[in-house]
Design a protein that fits this description.
The protein has helices at residues 32-40, 42-45; strands spanning 2-3, 10-11, 18-22, 25-29. It has 48 residues and is α+β, with helices and mostly antiparallel strands. 21% of the residues are buried.
């Protein structure tokens, strides 16, 4: 299971409705809206 970096919801990687690549890592999202928020500003949601 993965955690949606935008809303914190637990997401099954196999069933995630959306995903994005950032800095060589795949992030999974519970909904397309969370993916859009992440894609607009990934650095806001990724802990360095």
């Amino acid at each position: 299971m993965a955690v949606d970096p935008v809303c914190g919801m637990t997401v099954d990687e196999k069933k995630a409705p959306a995903k994005s690549e950032y800095n060589g890592k795949t992030y999974y999202f519970c909904a397309p809206g969370c993916k859009r928020a992440f894609d607009a500003n990934p650095a806001k949601y990724v802990k360095a």
